[in-house]
Structure formats: C-alpha cells, structure tokens
Amino acid sequence: MMQESGTETKSNGSAIQNGSSGGNHLLECGSLREGRSNGETPAVDVGTADLAHVQQQQQALQVARQLLLQQQQQQQVSGLKSPKRNDKQPALQVPVSVAMMTPQVITPQQMQQILQQQVLSPQQLQVLLQQQQALMLQQQQLQEFYKKQQEQLQLQLLQQQHAGKQPKEQQQVATQQLAFQQQLLQMQQLQQQHLLSLQRQGLLTIQPGQPTLPLQPLTQGMIPTELQQLWKEVTSAHTTEETTGNNHSSLDLTTTCVSSSAPSKTSLIMNPHASTNGQLSVHTPKRESLSHEEHPHSHPLYGHGVCKWPGCEAVCEDFQSFLKHLNSEHALDDRSTAQCRVQMQVVQQLELQLAKDKERLQAMMTHLHVKSTEPKAAPQPLNLVSSVTLSKSASEASPQSLPHTPTTPTAPITPVTQGPSVITTTSMHTVGPIRRRYSDKYNVPISSADIAQNQEFYKNAEVRPPFTYASLIRQAILESPEKQLTLNEIYNWFTRMFAYFRRNAATWKGAIRTNLSLHKCFIRVEDEFGSFWTVDDEEFKRGRHIQRGRPRKYCPDENFDELVAHNPSLIKNMQTSHAYCTPLNAALQASMAENSIPLYTTASMGNPTLGGLASAIREELNGAMEHTNSNESDSSPGRSPLQAVHPVHVKEEPLDPEEAEGPLSLVTTANHSPDFDHDRDYEDEPVNEDME
DNA sequence: GGCTATCTAAACACTT
DNA sequence: GAAGTGTTTAGATAGC
Hints:
Blueprint: H1 2-10, H2 12-17, H3 27-37, H4 48-80, H5 83-88, H6 96-101, H7 108-117, H8 122-162, H9 167-201, H10 224-242, H11 250-270, H12 280-294, E1 302-303, E2 306-307, H13 319-329, H14 334-373, H15 448-452, H16 455-460, H17 469-479, H18 487-497, H19 505-518, E3 522-527, E4 530-535, H20 537-542, H21 560-566, H22 577-581, H23 583-594, H24 600-605, H25 610-630, H26 657-661
Antiparallel strand pairs: 1-2, 3-4
This protein binds a DNA duplex through residues 392-393, 396, 400, 417-418, 433-438, 440, 468-470, 487-488, 506-511, 513-518, 524, 530-531, 543, 545-546, 548-554, 556-557, 639.
C-alpha cells in the first residue's frame, strides 16, 4: 500500500495524469480524477482549448506541488522519522497532493507517525506545529493560485456562454466546474474528519491564537487519488486506533467515499442539476447512515439474506451477520477497491448508454416532430426506422403507430389517438382498432424493407403492425415467389410475420377475408388446385373499394346458364388463372391487348381445367350481371381480373389513361354498351336498386 | 359536421 | 355437418 504511495509520488506527474497508475484504492475518486486531471469528464469531451488550458494549469500546480514535496521531505529527514515507520516504510514518500490538501499541513505519513507512536514529546509537537505553520503559508499561496484558476475557468465559461458556444461545450465546462466543486467539498469533509480524528486523539489541538486551520479555502487542489490516499491513511490510523477502543468514523469515511463519489459522478454525467448545489457528496454519508438506521434491513448490499456485493452472494442469516460479513469480507482493501472500481465502471457504462439512448430518443422525437410539420410531399408510408410511434398526421403516409426500437421487441409502441407529432412511449397496451390510412387518395404500398426493418420486432412483440390489412395482404402476396397466395397462406404469412396475429384468429382472419373481397386490387383466381389471390398493384394504389351494396359476385349454379345466355361475351373471360396471375402472362395479355387480340385467345392458350373454366365463367357472370344491371363497366372486383374489363379493341373512345394502365383494362367486352363510362367505379355510380 | 377509410363483427352462401 | 372460404353489410372510429 505504501509502496503504491511511493510509486505515485515518484511518478507524480504521470500518476496525476493517469488515474489508473497508482491511486486505485478508491475508485470513484480515481474516476473523478481522470476526468478532472485530463480536463475532461468521462462522459463528455472537452474542447481542445479548454483541455490545453486546464492542463497548463495543472502542470503549474504540479510544479508547485513538487516544491512542496521537496520541502516536506526535507522536514521529514530533519528528524520526524520514527523507527517504526522506517521499518515498515523504507521508502516513504509523501504524496504531494496529500500534503497540499490537508489544511493542517500534517501529511498522512506524519499523522501515521503520530498514530503509531501514540505519544509525541512536546518538543516534537512544537516542531511539528512550526512546520505546519510554515507550510501553511505556502498552502495559502497555493490556495490563492487555485482560486485564480477557478476564476479563470469561470471566466472561460462565461465567455463561452456569451460566445454562444455549443451547449455541449458549456456542459463540459460546467461539468468540470462541478467536479472541482465536488472535490472541494470532499476535501473539506475529509479535512473535518481528519481534524476531528486528530482532536479526538489529542494529538492536535487548535490553539485559539493559532492561525485558523483553513477548512474552507481549500480549493480545487484535491485530486481523488489524493483523497484516496488520505482516506487510506486515516483509515489505517483508525484501524490502529481500534486497538485502543476508540473506534469511530471509519465506516463513515468508507461510506463517504463509496456512496458519495459514485452518485456524484452520476450526477455529473446525467444530471448536472443534481450537483449544482455541490452538496451531494457532503451529506450523503450521514443520510445513508441514517437511512440504514431507520431501515436496518434495507441495505443496498443486502437482500433476501444474501450479500449483494458483486460476486459475493454470501448467505447472511440476519442483518447483523451481514454487517459483520460486510466489514470482514468487504473491508477496504485492494480487492474490494477493485470490485468497487469494476462496479463503478459498470454503472458508468450503463449511465453512458442510458444517456446515449436518451439522446437518441430525444433526437428521434425531435426529428419526428419536425417531420410532422413538414408538407406531405413525399409519402413515406412506413418509415419504421424511426421506431417511434407517431400519429398519422406526423406523416400522412405513415400509420399511426410505429413500434419502438426494433431491437427491443418488448418495447411498446404507442397508438397515438390524435394530434400531430405526438410521440409517447407508454401507451402500447392500449393498442386496439386503430385506423391505418396511408392516404386519402391512394394507397402507398409498403415495401418489403418496411416490414423487414422491423421484422424481428413484429415477430416477437405482440404489437399491432401499423399497416392496413390491405397493405399486409398485398405484401404477403408480393413476397410470395409466384405473387399469389391462397387464403391459408396469407393467414400463415400473418401469423409468421406478426406475433400480434397469433391470437384472435377469428377476428383478423375475418378481416383479411373482408379486405380481400372488399378491395378491388385483390383478385381471386382459381385453378385446379383451388383458389388463390393475387394483387393488382395499380389498383391497390388507387385504393378503390368495391362499393357496398353491390350485388354479390357469387352466382348460384342454377342461374349460371341463364346468365351465360344473357352474356355470351363472358366466355371471353374464361382465361386460366395462371394466364392472368403470373407476370409473364400479364405481359402476354398486355401484348395481346396492344395488338387487339381478344383475350379469349389466352384462354385457349392456357391450360384451363374444367373447374377453373366453370369458375371463371361463373365469376364473369357475376360481373356481367353487374354490367347488365347497373351498366357498370368497371371491374367487378371480382375476381376474375377479366371482370375489370374495358373494351380495348372494340371501343374507339379513348380510355381513361389510368384505367388503361393496368392489365385489367385489356379484356374485351364486346357486348358492352359503347357509351358506358369506363371511369366510373362502383363508388361513382349508385347501385341499381333493381338489383337489390 | 360531413365524408371517407378502416376495422370489426356478423350473416350468409358456397366448397371441401 | 363441420370447417374453411368468400361476399356483403352494418356499425364504430378516426382522420381529413
């Protein structure tokens, strides 16, 4: 221990600069020292100019300390060495900073001498006091120097504030200042402890006429490592003292260092306000001690009969045994110190992580808030990267709720009810039926990336995806290799991709079926193996629905022949499902349409089964019924894509460009009235009441 | 407040 | 007949 002290003294400058070299007895102090001695806090970076300035000041301080050290050593050589000390500490060297920080100008070594010798002769005490007085003058000079330093620092801070420097730099400077203040307070506290200790031992008496020991003006000359050293010296002194039954304040000191430094560091990093009063390191020990007295069994290191010291987990039957265990097994030694250091680092890392996450969250919220006020120029329907719930108005193309970070499947999303840029993180549990509109005018397809980016999240979290059923169905279909899925496959896709759809199957399955039927973009196709669904993306973007109240597409068999008789052209729509659904066949249809090839030709080109044929006929009949009765030309959503027919080669009237875009506009409907409006949809045309 | 989109539930019909 | 599938309607809700 003392060798470490000596090592530190030898490499004084470097030891001060490098908090990990020697003074590792007390960790929090070491951490603080690192921040301070390097002119930066562990959490933030200081500006280069600030850092250089602080370092210059520190170098000047070190020079002064070395001068002081030399003087002290001379004093020690002059006759205050005790035989005991020489035995135990052959190379005793006083940490310079310790000498500086003790207002009594009694170095720990000297104090230890006193403690070890127990009795000093009056002559020795007189010499000691004289030396103290001489040193005190130098101490006061150094204190003034420190004061000037602080003033300069404050001036810098003010200048930076006035110069409008970035808040981060301000915060860093403020953090530095807080660190200084904190160290000052710690030092003052230790001073008092130290003084009381000496007074109790009767080894130091403050004479009324004697220059007042400067309890207060010890400025920022304290370095945590020095505090550690002093603490250790004092503690060891008290340990010696225990033999005389005069046991006091050792635990308090330990508590002081451990409990005050870590939280104070926390406050420096996370909550500057918490330390602005500079009090936290002062009263914490007593408070904690009181807390433990009031709640004797609520020690942070004790719970469920187990010692919570990291890596310990020793079973303690009661709190008293725990205290014994704590004092015996986790006393102040290198091991405990190292463990404490590790724990501090863990806490630091967690705090840093928390700070970063908070900052990220803030940036996200800020970003989304700004975004919500932006014009809806470019709909980004499902920008899930932001991973924050936002209202629909936050992005017109965005759904109302977005999940939290995809990396945290348990993170809730928030279904925001209303209001722009409302971002909360607490209301996921109220996920319910929410509107998920992409646009009033058209649907903006979600991309695979939209879902893929949050795939794991939705797979694991029972969070309702912020997509409409239609969008999800479309996505499911488009993700399939054949761009077609059976209903059951759609179900499976939903359950596979979204944990939310692994319950209440009846509800969402019904919704899927409803949407499949309701949206014109979904096209049901039959083949010999059954029926499957495809999607017409253009129609999807139009977002049109089948109008309510329109007659059912399904046509009972008993009406089939009659309907065929009334609609002979329906046979043209007896294409195979394959011919329609695959992109290849769609292209083929387009090509044929361009060349005015009647679509029924495709039927002959395909390989329709009788079942498929009948189904196609039946479906087409339904569409024909609609046409017949309501004079509608638009596609019957029905399902055979050919129901969404437009007379391509028959009609000479121009087609609605929109309608002509898609493959659905390719089918001939020779029997249609030439004057019907192709642009009209079910939505546009009232349903023929006769049909009903 | 009206309109629209969406969701949900339900009824009904057909198919397997 | 049961289950699955498909269609349609009505009501509720939320956003525009």
